[in-house]
Amino acid sequence: MAWEVIGHDWAVALLREGLAKGRVTHAYLFTGPPQIGKTHLAQVLAQALNCEEPDPPCGRCSSCLKIAGGTHPDVRVIVGEGAGESIKIDQVRSLQREAILLPYEGRYRVFILRLMDQATMEAANSLLKTLEEPPAHVVLALTAVQAEVLPPTVVSRCQRLDLRPVSLRQVESALEDRGLADEQARLLARLSGGRIGWALEAARGEGTFPQRQQGLEQLMQLLSATRVERFDFASKVSRDVDSCRALIELWASWWRDLLLLTAPAQAAPAQAAPAQAASAQGHIVNLDRAGELEQVASHTDLSRAWAVLAALESTVARLDANVNVRLALEGLLLKLPHWAAVAGTGGATSPQANE
Ligand SMILES: [Zn+2]
């Protein structure tokens, strides 16, 4: 028996128990933050339903391998297409035409519908028909980040499993098992926030991780840049709202770390600071930037650091509200403090007022 899932033990136990008792639910809903493992768990469930070995899922039979490789004729992962990358009614209709056919080679036809919370309302309502009277050989597995966006009639027809972030310890050891050095495994685990899918992708050098180093270097450079240079940067980056948003979220994670390192030193007597700083280090996310963060923290005023983090977070909210990206970014960059030597070669940092 190999439910090859990292973390989510309770969800696996629940699914396993149901199948062991011969109770196949015809609709499951997996919810949770992006890249937490929702689709993967749905695929392993599909393996458990169609595995040819006595103790499913074996992970090794031809059915399990085809499902893992995305080539099993009875298991389909449906992702949004076209505008908004949302699942559309035509895709649901084609699912319905397929669903009435008996499986080609497995026991069940499994349809995994990714990010149903982004599907169009017509698509969700149309899916309801299948959820109400599913053919006996059909299992639907929906995933969603925000279940509350789905029509309640859809949610109520599904067995719902709300996945939570995997423990960082589990992420770290999964990465070590895949050959990552301890230090890199610890860093990626922290950066992942328990989103195992993100961590595995980063370990392969894919996803958003490769851009991270550059994004943080840009932040350091901007801190010592002139107003004109900052505006130039805003005009370049603001062409793509998604990467702009990702960049600001990255900066916010660095700034949250800065606050962790700044706060104790400001609040406590000088002699207590090193121990507290050491415990704060145990919580920072950007472990590989600890030296730079400490250097900046030792020269940072707590209230100013708070103000910058607030500005970063409110800019993300403004981008989500579809404001003018360039204006929002320019406003943000004006609020960044001006630190002369942060981007330099480790010289003393000298905070200066920008205004
Ligand atoms: Zn198998």
Describe the protein.
The protein has 355 residues and is of the alpha/beta class. The chain folds into three domains: 9-162, 3-Layer(aba) Sandwich (Rossmann fold), CATH 3.40.50; 168-203; 209-352, Zinc Finger, Delta Prime, domain 3, CATH 1.20.272. The chain has 16 helices and seven strands. The chain has helices at 9-20, 38-50, 62-69, 89-99, 121-132, 152-155, 168-177, 182-192, 196-203, 209-223, 227-237, 241-267, 273-281, 290-297, 302-320, 325-335, and strands at residues 27-31, 75-78, 109-113, 138-144, 159-162, 338-339, 351-352. The strands form two sheets. The chain has a five-stranded parallel β-sheet, with helices on both faces. A two-stranded antiparallel ribbon has the order 6-7. Strand 3, helix 5 (121-132) and strand 4 form a beta-alpha-beta unit. 35% of the residues are buried. Zinc ion binds next to helix 3.
What characteristics describe this protein?
disordered C terminus, 5-stranded parallel sheet, binds zinc ion, 355 residues, globular, single chain, Rossmann fold, Zinc Finger, Delta Prime, domain 3, alpha/beta, two-stranded antiparallel sheet
Strand content: 5-15%
- Looking across the biggest beta sheet, what order are the strands in? 2-3-4-1-5
The tally of domains stands at 3
Q: Specify the oligomeric state.
A: single chain
Give the number of DSSP strands.
Answer: 7
Q: Which molecules are bound in this entry?
A: zinc ion
Q: Please report the first level of CATH classification, the CATH class of the largest domain.
A: Alpha Beta
- Fourth CATH level, the homologous superfamily of the largest domain: P-loop containing nucleotide triphosphate hydrolases
CATH topology of the largest domain: Rossmann fold
Report how far the terminal alpha carbons are from each other.
64 Å
By DSSP (H or I, 4+ residues per run), the number of helices equals 16
Structural class: alpha/beta
Q: Could you describe the largest sheet, including whether it forms a barrel?
A: 5 strands, parallel
Low-pLDDT ranges: 268-272, 343-355
Give helix and strand order, one letter per element, not per position. Answer: HEHHEHEHEHEHHHHHHHHHHEE
Q: Please estimate the helix content.
A: 40-55%
Indicate the radius of gyration in whole angstroms. Answer: 24 Å
Shape: globular
CATH architecture of the largest domain: 3-Layer(aba) Sandwich
